[in-house]
Amino acid sequence: MDSEDDTRDSADEDFYSGGEAGLALSDDGEADYDFADRDSDDSDDLISHRQQQNYSVLSETDIKQHQADDMNRVSTVLSISKSEACALLRSYNWSVSKVHDEWFVDEARVRTAVGLPEKQNEMPNERELTCGICFESCPRESMGAASCGHPFCGVCWRGYISTAINDGPGCLMLRCPDPSCSAAVGQDMVNLFASDEDKGKYERYLCRSYIEDNRKTKWCPAPGCEYAVEFVVGSGSYDVSCGCSYGFCWNCTEEAHRPVDCSTVSKWILKNSAESENMNWILANSKPCPKCKRPIEKNQGCMHITCTPPCKFEFCWLCLGPWSDHGERTGGFYACNRYEAARQEGAFDDSERRREMAKNSLERYTHYYERWAANQSSRQKALGDLQSLQNDKLEKLSDIQSQPESQLKFIIEAWLQIVECRRVLKWTYAYGYYLPDHEHAKRQFFEYVQGEAESGLERLHQCAEKELQIYLDADCPSKDFNDFRTKLAGLTSKAVSSKNLGGKSKSGKNKAPVGASKSGSSTRGMDDGNIWACDQCTFANPRSARSCQVCDHQQHR
Known about the structure:
zinc; single chain; mainly alpha; Znf_RING/FYVE/PHD; zinc ion binding; disordered N terminus; EC 2.3.2.31; about 10% strand
């Protein structure tokens, strides 16, 4: 009964830890490489998984509807009020199956834990009742009580509920004001006594609780986005795309980072934000003052260094000895015989070795970070160009070339592919940074594949950016526009193949693609005659597919 509500969010075959091939971009290469170091024994099953939509985007209206549907299901099956069903679901993290399981195993225990008395107790049937908080006698009509029957006046109820709501989300687990009673105060009591402002706050807390307490749903991490994403268990991919167009990884909520696993991304982001590289730079490019130990960067050619006030110690940059001990006999201003002699005796081996290691480490990190950041910057620029193209340039091009916009979707598809390829290529540099140095063969192949990917992407980006501009600046239809269409579509198709395809596994089966699109379909060896572009989302599908592998739109033959 609704067992899927209680299923763990991660599939048995974790996408990032197995079953996915690495980047394989050569059209004729069949090398065996895997980012996760594990072969896929059944790529067909993985592809069919990714052809299914494995998540749904929820607006605030959708969230409230899902919430109401769950409460109705529990209320109907257990024959309890909706307010009681809401209290049960909150206590069990909005898992309908968990509520049903626990309820039918031991109903009395569940009622006690949640605060739902088996019998609804009414207030004493008297004309006037004494409030349990202010101890004033009030008419029965102005009193109120939860399911336990303890009476309190309306003024006290309003103050009690308002205080709890203003204290935060803990108001969702509110109990009877009587210290000896644990009966739940449900949404019905809130609606009866709370002000409109407090009711709005309570509903927002309830809505957020449905997303944040439910392990099948998460908020989109994009700034200002109010969408949530419900993840369907059973797919190998954690990549989701929100209604705000932000793509992120369901598993770690960082931006989408296939083909790199979440742990590598976590380490890379931490390294980029940590102070470790600052310390490496200080160690590699400075020396400590021999007197006050403050690090000093040498910014002029002379070896005569004077520390900043109040220290003002003068010393030799090479041997760190007092400058008063230096003169013509020690080499003067640009050499230090003492340093050379001490170095030959091994006095500076450890410090020099540490400084050299820090410098090499810093240079290596800078190499990968600069390329990671450059692809990130190029991706952001491509997103801006894509938006500009969709807003006005495509219409302008349609007028200049006298072609309907529906026939220019190949340009939009090219830019979408550029954005996606920039994302994939960006994260390959994070992967390369953590690739062990002793795995020479793997590193050599990785760098070859990465180079091929970068080369193909640059050709596509240049064609979509600079060559397209020629036709945007034209005054009349261009005769060679169809040649441009063929070239751009071909480069786009090749980029799809580059990004999606893995080599062959040791078993001989094709590996599942890495950094693939949502469908994850393989397009090895396809030319323009073997693919068809979806009219709805412009995704390039293999000719054998009867419907689009992204949006399920039917192919028109």
